[in-house]
Design brief:
Chains A, B: It holds the Pfam family Acetyltransf_1. 2 copies of one chain form a homodimer. With about 300 residues, chain A is an alpha+beta fold. Helices cover about 50% and strands about 20% of the residues of chain A. Chain A has 9 helices and 10 strands. Chain A binds a DNA duplex (30 and 30 nucleotides) through α4.
Chain lengths: ~300, ~300
DNA sequence: CCATATCTCTGACTCTAGTCAGAGAATGCT
DNA sequence: AGCATTCTCTGACTAGAGTCAGAGATATGG
């Protein structure tokens, strides 16, 4: 059976079995939209959910949301009050009955999941759960989109900031960006270089920069993968894409430096054809230097 | 993370990624219901689809179906003609434009599946597909429902017929039900015994019978699993459930006979605590006899 | 041949989801 | 203080999905 048929078959079985779950049972005699909303309000811990945040998250029309809330208020499950600091903004909060109803949704969703797991033996269940984890991880990985972004762009800035924070927590001696060799934005812009950011659901979850040095080898810098998306091969993907960009921009060889505490990265460089070379840039925080000749 | 959270997480990722597929793109500017219908008509090979069959399969109201078909007819994608043999029945058939549109749906669905697979490396893709197969198999397994059924019931008859057909094709010397020791329905009815059938989507996909012999060991017979549902542990499940039924009906020991060509069954009996014993019933088609003491 | 059942179609509904254009209140900016 | 902006709400819609009660045509069993 070919790949596409396998995916379709998976699709059919899964939606039939799990789709029924969401639609039928979570509704509990109430329109699905209202249940979803109730769920989402209940998921925001503590002080209630701002309407504008709900609208954003569920992508609802403001009029539509308003009406849905009124229906839930009518059922006594929710009450909507002005936000304390800004009384244009309103906040939805579950009433005690709403909390109870939310818990009930929770329970019936649990029961439905149980309906899938219960008929299986312990071993089958364990295999199903691992396979689900694998599908979930790989489908998430395939939802990641990598694209070139201006280094001054908010997503690029956020990625680099996260990268520096990560270094500070991992390096034995901490990390201070001021002590590293600085890279002006322009060096990560074409034609001097490029900067790639990986997005998942619009959030940056990884980055990598490339800096050309004329006829000398180009330099790969700022390779970062968010903790939440590790183990999905995203590092390797960023490396592949930045190598492709390097080729496109005319580099025949790429180099990079790294710290001895970044063991996964070091292993990855080695397994992707990078050879260790002597210090080529005097970077104070580096312990290893690598080089790869591109096809 | 507990099991239920794992399933929910899986659920969220999968429906987001694959649900978008069905809804958004398969619609192609046409209401989803009509696309589904078009798809289903196209899926029936050759002579078109009888409306009553469509109604059954898609669980549609007859008025609703009628209107949907009219809309598709209006778009020139389908034409509906009376069935040649019974002109109360009508048959929907794709027009050449309908065939083209169906192929287009097919292609765009392929493209969306491609969108999931393409960003992955060859190895990741292979892992995703195997994990999908595993999820699909185990979720199908968990959708199987086993219940006691009267041996004269259509589902029981169909199961036993399928079982005999299977035996005929596997035994070296064929199989003729007339030559085996017959079992009147009543012996598979409580209090003399019981008969379990496994259903998947309402279709019988397995069965097993139990025949009590007073203080002597009870006998397990007619253990069958449809070819389409092998490798899901359904045989073991039927065995477990019939053993439980035996205990409930007061049997302390169960016995069974089997033919040497049924190697998977023999392996299963051994691994489920059955010990080989001498011929206890003189069944002409049997080569092995097993016994198990129940807890 | 007649009564009954089967199958499809039409008309008349209901519900849910969702969109769009403002109105009105509160806030922020200058 | 005055004006633009932000946020929520109301009214007035549209469209899809689905239900229900027959009507009309055709088959079938006695």
């Amino acid at each position: 059976m070919d790949d596409i048929a396998r995916v379709r078959r998976f699709n059919r079985t899964v939606t039939e079995r799990i789709g029924a779950l969401d639609d039928g049972y979570l509704a509990r005699g109430r329109p699905l939209g209202q249940s979803r909303l109730l769920w989402e309000i209940g998921a925001t811990n503590g002080g209630g959910a701002e309407l504008r945040a709900l609208r954003e998250r569920l992508e609802l029309d403001s009029g539509y949301l308003s009406r849905q809330l009124r229906a839930l208020e009518g059922d006594g499950l929710v009450h909507v009050v002005p936000a304390p600091d800004d009384s244009r903004v309103r906040v939805a909060r579950l009433t005690p009955e709403g909390v109870e109803e939310h818990a009930e949704l929770d329970r019936s969703s649990d029961a439905l999941v149980g309906g899938i797991l219960d008929p299986l033996t312990e071993r089958q269940r364990e295999r199903l759960l691992s396979a689900m984890d694998e599908v979930e991880r790989l489908m998430t990985a395939s939802a990641v989109e990598v694209r070139a972004v201006d280094p001054a762009d908010a997503a690029a800035r956020a990625s680099v900031a996260a990268y520096f924070t990560e270094l500070a927590s991992r390096f034995d001696l901490g990390f201070d960006p001021a002590h590293t060799r600085p890279t002006p934005d322009d060096e990560f812009r074409e034609p001097h270089g490029t900067f790639l950011v990986a997005f998942l659901h619009g959030e940056p979850v990884g980055c990598v920069g490339l800096k050309l040095h004329g006829a000398d080898p180009a330099e790969i810098k700022r390779l970062w993968v968010a903790a939440s998306t590790r183990g999905m091969g995203l590092g390797a993907r960023l490396l592949r894409e930045i190598e492709a960009a390097a080729v496109r921009l005319g580099a025949a060889v790429v180099r990079l430096d790294t710290n001895r505490t970044l063991t996964e990265a070091i292993a990855m460089y080695r397994s992707h054809g990078y050879d260790e070379i002597p210090d080529f840039n005097g970077e104070p925080y580096a312990d290893f230097w690598f080089e790869k000749r591109l096809a």
